[in-house]
Write a structure and sequence with these properties.
The strands form 2 sheets. Strands 4, 5, 6, 7, 8 and 10 form a 6-stranded mixed β-sheet that branches. A 4-stranded antiparallel β-sheet has the order 2-1-3-9. The protein is 35% helix and 14% strand. It contains 9 helices and 10 strands. A hairpin with a 4-residue loop joins strand 5 and strand 6.
């Protein structure tokens, strides 16, 4: 058994969904059946584990805690070539603030609550309980890794892990908060076209998100399907103009998790809706 495979099995047993990384800290490419999302963008993604091709495909979405998948023949070649092990923080209910240099660390010590810290090659990972959308370069030398993201495993670190607070969540906002009566100007990291919001008032967006939360909350059966269809409806209306904020997305994820969905299920449903709509 390779050292990386042994490490992956150990941290997966602790609840962290893992995946192998090749040189350059990059995930392995998709298998021939999934190249350029030829499989349809993970349409058969299982609740825990990679798509049904069996290979460690689709980057962070392949991360799993299932030892049978991790040690399978389909993953064996990747482990033999692996340069490192990574994990999907959002799938474990975590957020990692990636501080890339000493200046970023100095800023974090003044601006963010102390939490579990893991040394990296040039900086530190600060780990918090709770999830939020991932985002790169939220400020100089600072990235957010959580939902739809992965982080290289560098050890357990030191200190107690604390819950996400507003100073951390605010890092992904694209500007200062505005009153609810003002036009929406914040954006969420979607792959949309951007541009001016066509909605006349923020009330239209608020009503739409509230109705979506209610629809999820009232689901009595087929919760998975209801969550996906609701995410699809919200994104089809608001996903291209840039009016959705992290707060709106978190409200939808919170409602879904209150119905028993895991952070991983929420992320997969959101990503699949984005793919379906071409965002």
């Amino acid at each position: 058994m390779s050292e990386h495979l042994h490490t992956a099995l150990r941290i997966a047993a602790a609840g962290l969904p893992v995946l192998p990384l090749r040189r350059g800290k990059l995930p392995f490419g998709n298998c021939p059946a999934c190249t350029r999302n030829a499989c349809g963008g993970r349409p058969t993604m299982k609740a825990a584990g990679p798509c049904e091709c069996g290979a460690p495909c689709h980057a962070w979405a392949a991360a799993t805690t299932d030892p049978h998948v991790i040690g399978s023949l389909a993953w064996a070649s990747a482990w033999r070539q692996a340069a490192a092990v990574a994990y999907h923080p959002g799938g474990a209910g975590l957020t990692v603030v990636d501080l890339d240099d000493t200046a970023a660390i100095a800023w974090a010590r003044k601006a963010l609550p102390a939490t579990r810290t893991v040394p990296t090659t040039r900086g530190e990972h600060w780990i918090y309980r709770g999830t939020m959308p991932s985002a790169n370069a939220v400020r100089p030398g600072v990235d957010i890794k959580s939902l739809a993201g992965y982080v290289r495993w560098l050890g357990n670190g030191t200190g107690a892990t604390v819950s996400l607070t507003d100073p951390v969540r605010a890092l992904t906002l694209k500007g200062p908060a505005v009153p609810s009566s003002a036009p929406q100007s914040l954006t969420v990291p979607l792959r949309g076209h951007g541009g001016e919001c066509p909605h006349r008032t923020p009330t239209y967006l608020e009503r739409g998100v509230s109705m979506a939360v209610q629809r999820i909350s009232e689901a009595r059966s087929a919760v998975h399907a209801t969550v996906y269809r609701t995410f699809l409806a919200v994104l089809s209306t608001h996903g291209r103009c840039g009016c959705l904020t992290d707060t709106h997305v978190n409200r939808l994820f919170t409602a879904a998790q209150a119905k028993g969905e895991t952070p991983r299920h929420c992320t997969e449903a959101w990503t699949n809706a984005l793919t379906t709509l071409g965002l």
